[in-house]
Fold these 3 entries.
Entry 1:
Amino acid sequence: MSTVSLGMPALPPRGFGNISETEPFPSYARRELQNDQLRANLRHATHTIRDKRLRVVSELPDWEELREAGSAIKAEAMERLPELLAQFEEQFTARGGTVHWARDAAEANRIVEGLVRATGSSEVVKVKSMATQEIGLNEYLEERGIAAFETDLAELIVQLGHDKPSHILVPAIHRNRTEIRDIFLREMPGVDPELTDEPRRLAMAARAHLRRKFLSAKVAISGANFGIAETGTLGVVESEGNGRMCLTLPETLITVMGIEKVLPRAEDLGVFMQLLPRSSTGERMNPYTSLWTGSTPGDGPKDVHVVLLDNGRTRALADRHGRSALHCIRCSACMNVCPVYERAGGHAYGSTYPGPIGAILSPLLTGVEAEENKSLPYASSLCGACFDACPVKINIPEILVHLRGEDVEARHSRPGARRLPSQFDLAMAGASWAMSDGARMGLLERGLPLGKAAAGRDGVISKLPGLGAGWTQSRDIPAPPAESFRAQWAKRAKNSADPHGIKEGEGK
Amino acid sequence: MRIALFATCIVDAMYPRVAQATVEILERLGHEVVFPAGQACCGQMHVNSGYFPEALPVVANHVRTFESGFDTGEYEVAVAPSGSCVASVKHQHALVADWAVEHGVKGADSTLAARADAVGARTYELAQLLTDVLGVADAAAQLGSYLPGTITYHPSCHGMRLLHLGDRQRSLLASVEGLEVVDLPEAEQCCGFGGTFSIKNADVSSAMLADKVANICGTGAGACAGGDASCLMHIGGGLHREKRTTPSGRPVRTVHLAEVLASTREKPLTIDGELALAGTPGGAR
Amino acid sequence: MSARDDILARIHAALGTDITPGEREVGASAPGAGYRATSGRTEDELVDLLVDRLEDYKARVEVVAAAELAEAIRTRLEGKTFVAPAGLPADWLHPSLADRRATDSREEPLGVDRLDAIGAVVTGSAVSIAETGTIVLDGSPDQGRRAISLVPDHHVCVVPVETIVGIVPEGFARLDVTRPLTLISGPSATSDIELERVEGVHGPRTLDVLIVR
């Protein structure tokens, strides 16, 4: 299996930016698990939103049909991607916009910097955007003397707290109200020192803080939830109105959009504008959605740009078994139902994209053979709750398993690394040998009494060596029986005239 | 009906009593049980750990073993007392077979995927077989099932989400005479087992287990029933480690659905010589 | 090679020949397959549903007859100064409001600071979607520039009953997405703090809806 990639065309280049683990998931998660406040915050938030989502999803009689349609439209978009991107470019340009293409994070950052500089402005207001988070745009601009102000409340909390987002929809989900109040008191210029931790008071403090910025900003930067190929239309789905402020008031608007966000037709919005709000915030509809096509004379920004971003998306697209991860509409339903995310939190995934979707998307964008993302596909018990919740039916568990296979293969074929099998490799090979033959399995099962002898007086084993130590750190394991079922059955068959015959009282 | 029993590796080696109970139930209904001797394992552990080359012979063995009896008419369906192993047979085997062909694995068999699907189509999880094929709706009336006490129930993920078992297992439990089934809070939450996940991400797995254990103990039930021996081993291991007891001071256990259904007035289910749910109040039906 | 050509070439290479025409069920992907295209609700049902959904978002809603509209708008404005687009039907505004009105148009737009000093805005609307409580503005003359319905803190929005549809796909079927569209579902809100919904952040904190029948 070591020469699989021989003779195949070279894969598209990997993506870069904030899409990598900073340390292996298990060790980051171990640390986060000790933070009781974090766990309480996450539990409260994920359970609240989970229940809301279930309520509004159950209202729609055609929810499954909508998911089916969403999945099919995304698959169609991927299949027709070159054609749709060209069509989008043509339409957006025809209506007064400018389209730029960026191969990776560095190129996208350079393009945006150039566009901002051309306006003469040294500050920008930002609408929450995963794509710009992914490419590290804020940090890039800050280093070059351009101040980027996040305007979404949660992004503001994260930015003021010198923190990292831990959720794609609610980036400050790991913070509770008291922590947020403390951040505002510490970091927000001119904040009322009597500020309480009531969410309404906190939201109003953010309103006052940002109002001047909105009214004076010359340049805004956004992401996009959708790009409609047919018309060249871009869309941003939001709640607070900070998006509308940024998309409407400044003279220049720069949008960074992943190439996978393109949809074929305007009427596809009829599907996605039902799937997205209900799956993300658990609302029937988000408070505000803005759609714009190039620039409209006399209404909104005059100078409108979009940067179409690859940054590893073509790499993911080249993976036939993983490419449906690109169907993701960033609703965050998967992380809200994920028992692993709920306990480890978003930071443990390292990447801008945490949770189940992050565990597949990040390694797909960088290539799973990229050392830094190899523990992500294992950050799941494969319980399948994410697949059930996904509005576009991305089979996340199946892709996780596929990526685990890629990881094992990459590890076994890594040049230079002398192929010394790990303890795990040996266990897997041994189990494969035993479990591919009933007779071998039966022979091994004759050793069961040894395990029974190893058990303590209470009939359990409480400490296993090596790999098993992970198990016995919090669980006992029962002593095996004296005899396997196979052996019991063989005896019973022997005692019977008819090999399949059943007689009362047998089997023991 | 002649029914092939796929015991699954964990039941075969660790919980033979679950396989015995499965046989007993099916025989009580008048069916004939066959145990194809070549069987070993579904290969799920290898697949889920990414060891596809190692999974391949395991999958091939399973398909070969079970298809021969289907072909000769030795049995009509196969049953396993495990939702996750059945889900593996139904959903993963063909994927492994396709993987082998796609990767040009030496000796890869291009017919394996279709054969795996054929075996998968005739393989049932126990509650699925009882409910959908054998028409069991009332365990007390049709199987003589009897077990006094209070029990709670954990629906394992793969049965629930991959096989869409719905309330089949729970309904069967609820129809056992003397048995009161109390709702498990956050029942649909994974117990944290996840095969090698429990070793590779032992800390997160343990945190999930701790919540499951707390929820089970909060019900006051004498035991937690389920349809997957692996999850039950995980949960049972946590209950035992934490020395969890019922309000009346007896250890809280895990029991398999098959064991509960096999329990009768004449031969009620016992664990370590004690009545399985003794000491917990039972609901009269 | 330009970034554009490079990326398009990468996509072609990535898709390769894996997907052969007919492999996927393209027919099943055509929009309209499976999910609801219409709600089949009567006008009365649509109005009731829209009212229910808007109230759920904490919008204030009133159903009025055409003849009562001007008085209803006057009452809702609560004595505030307001901006209205140049194309707002003249008979929607009570004559007594003339001296409190500022007029905005694409040709003669008001500055943002001016808008910020104005108490309210009155607009019409293009389409409303009952099931989701969504009102869509499309920049038509009775709705005006996007800025006017954004900066003032109080939005009085008129919804003619014939513009109400049942469900989202019906809404998009009536809209031209190349116009600047704003979908509004209740007043500005956030759920960023412990997932608790708080109405009123940056957009108008008060949304008054007058359904005219």
Note: Residues 315-413 of chain A form a domain with the Fumarate Reductase Iron-sulfur Protein; Chain B, domain 2 fold (CATH 1.10.1060.10).
Entry 2:
Amino acid sequence: MRNRFVATAAGLVAAFLGFSGTAHAGKDLDAVKSRGTLNCGVGIGTAGFMLADSQGKWKGLSVDVCRAVSAAIFGDSEKVRYVPLTSQQRFTAVQSSEVDIVMGNATYTLTRDTALGLDFTGVYYYDGQGFLVPKKLGVKNAKELNGATVCVAPGTTTELNLADYFRANKMTFKPVVIEKVDEIRSAFFSGRCDVYTTDASSLAATRAANVPPPQTFDDYMILPEIISKEPLGPVVRHGDNQFADIVRWALYAMLEAEEYGITSKNVDEMLKSDNPAIKRILGVTPGMGKALGVDEKWVYNIVKQVGNYGESFDRNVGMGSPLKIPRGQNALWTQGGLQYAPPIR
Amino acid sequence: MAVESLGSVPRVKVAPWNDPVIRGWVFQIVVVGLVGFLAWYLVSNTIENLQRQKIASGFHYLEREAGFEIGDTMIEYSPASTYARAIWVGILNTLRVAVLGILLSTLLGTVIGVGRLSPNWLLSRICGWYVEAFRNVPLLLWLFLFYKLISEAFPGPRQAISMLWNSVFLSNRGVYFPVPMADPIHKWMGVAFLIGIAGTWMLARWGRKRQETTGQPFPIISAGLGILIGLPALVWLAGGAPHHMSWPELKGFNFTGGTVIQPEFTALLVGLVLYTSAFVAEIVRSGILALHKGQSEAAAALGLSRGQSMRLVLLPQALRVIVPPMTSQYLNITKNSSLAIAIGYPDLVASINVTINQTGQAIENILIIMAAYLSVSLSISAFMNWYNKRIALRER
């Protein structure tokens, strides 16, 4: 609570004094360049998406997008300072210039894109809200949850979707709303609630990493219903179009690289490719970097240092990780998924 | 030359910029002007910045549908209610825990404070340890501890501990117990109870007067209890004695029927009361110690028992020392109740938080929360100041 008040207070002070202005385009990018680091707001900790390891190094799919932006701007994916933010703090933090990007698993919605003075620059993960239940409850689908007590984190779209879903299905529930993720998980695992609801990705992370012994991974299941669309996207301040473009295309570059089979392993050989699209992407044929206002080798740097989208997905949340989330909707459009990058040309 | 009265000292003619009176006025006007300008600058700059950042402003959102559910409400509420009502639910929840907390911590704190002065070595030590233990550990940790105790130690609803012939159930979902079904007569029973309070008060005044004039004591406590219980009971009988109860029953995931005291509320109330009563105890102790020991000696000389001298002689005088610092404890309890958010009790801060996040209108919501806490705190202060004046030593 204190932290949130600090962030809110910082936002208020910023609003009062007016140093959060977005008076002319390019201001945010200039600030990032002159500072020499990208300030990236991340969530407090979701395995696979954003979590500091034992050395304090942030890792995850969301973190990789910040690294890609850093690689595009500086040619170095490590020039990022990570700022952990709760779901309450994150928008105020970006509004007040405390951070340049928020990668806090924030759902892309109309209100957030408009009324909050923010811009979403794409979707790095197509998520949806699900329900985690203990198997011993004997529940097989969400329609059986009438009268259940539900653990939920406050101030997110999750809380609204939950109420909407139960209202639409003429069911009732009792919410238990705790701000700290650790506390809400512990309330759920101790049986204070029947159900824990949040984005399915985060449920998978919780099930993989947080079940307290003697209970195990297999004592819990995620119900088949996904009750909402939760496209997770990077958030930047409204006003600096050039900076927003770089963030947008850094993500697209990761997708485009996967589509053309460019990986961190083969990117050096790909520089010799005859394919005109690959030559354009990797800056062998110049022009794209200039148009975006970054180095011509921007995609090369991203793929070399961070990897393409598929590599990042597998390493952090996919089959190469403890989460074992299938690609599903997050497969490329060529594989029947939703991930689609406009052409880099 | 004789000294003339000060008022008629002829004013020496000086230039206006050297005249202290005029200078005084000028400085005050300049200060007021500067403060006013600063306020205007901050407000207008904020509004301008909000508009430039395209952040919505104004209080219209209060009439929109809130869309989120609240777990513990004293009034009718659903996700279809407005934000204004959601915030009101939060205010009532904060008031509920604050009022109960103030009452209980005053009682417990007084008992412990008096106990600490007891000649009984063990009792005074236990009270001393209590005070040190609770004062020296942050409240938040106590709250986590009590919440964990409740949610870990009690079984789930399907294995609930049943008590009193299957009418009361203890589980990690709270304490479920039966309540009478709503009946129109309940409202009239409430009215009868209020009349009972007024009657008891008048009876107490009359009883005291009689004792002062004739020396005859009047059993005011038993008479008062008789009135307070008897009047509503008579009304209940007159209304046909409706006795349908709503019983808690395990249905599906949880109990339905009856009523429930939820773990979050219990943990918060217990934490606040135990923590604050340690401070109250110290205030009570210091208040009693502030009295001259002649007071207790005189009371003993009159043949009053220890309890009587405490109740009739020492505490009433100690109140003059106790009440002012007690005011800050009451304010603390109210403000500390905002830690509720850490253990999931839906208080004012929780409602405002969610509202800020759903609407993005931080400034308006922060203003509301500030206004709410300010008015509660000022009301408590005003009441305590009034009470302090009433019990103050009146010199005749």
Note: Residues 271 and 282 of chain A are 7 Å apart (CA to CA).
Entry 3:
Amino acid sequence: MSGLSAPSVISFPRLRLWLLAVPVLLLIAYLVLMDNGAISQTGAYLHELMHDGRHLLGVPCH
Amino acid sequence: MVRTLLVRGLLLGLLAGLIAGGFAFTFGEPQVDSAIALEAAHEAPGHDHAEEELVSRPGQKAGLFLATGLYGLAVGGVFALVYAGLRGRVGPRSEGALALTVAGTAFVAVILVPFVKYPASPPAVGDPETINSRTVLYLVMILVGLAATVIAVATARRVTAGPWARWVAAVVAFLVPVIAAWTLLPTVNEVPEGFSATLLWQFRLASLGTQLVFWTAFGVLFGWVSDRAAHRAAARATVASPS
């Protein structure tokens, strides 16, 4: 711990702009974990491609 | 600073997702194959399921890595922004300890809490008709886990009677809403008659293990890289202004 100080606080105004990334990231998570073709418009293709991943990541599936 | 953290979260999330994919491939795919074989054996003769498949089994096994990789990317990015907000405000003051604490908390709140109520199921278990209601219940359980975490942290910060009292208060404040939700939310019971209990248990362990591997790998990688960066920055500062 040579000269290591506590991390500086990032002010909320500086953080706010970056929060715009959250909806994009959640959309990716949604497409991987929950999409059934309604939003992606790929039919069930995305669903089937990532089907094993869905089951093994523990998300409800049929 | 935020951009550095976000890029770090995205890349390390992708890496941890691929590591978790390797675990899932090794320990989970045998159970998925067995479940699909059981399903095929129970179907009426002449009903060829394979022809209806959009993606072949080898394709789905490759898709497993795509799924865990993209999952890691998305989760890692969100984690980095949450971490950026918490840094220096709540929790341990060192970067590595904070990363491990947040990753451990996230695993318990977002994975373990929903898993106990709505455990993962292999293919051939679960009624396609109820997929929407099951998904909503699962998301509600995630929100309960997150809300319970916020309540626990807020409660712990008000307790000034020492670290032990603070820990007990935090755990109780976390468990009360979680146990209430476990008790009150409807139970899903869709395992077909005669489905192998051993196979179901092994699949569920493999599924929980996949998430455990992801969060462990991600927490350790993110903490390690952050600590290294902090040490380098501290060293640079010492060189720049020798006092």
Note: Residues 16 and 218 of chain B are 5 Å apart (CA to CA).
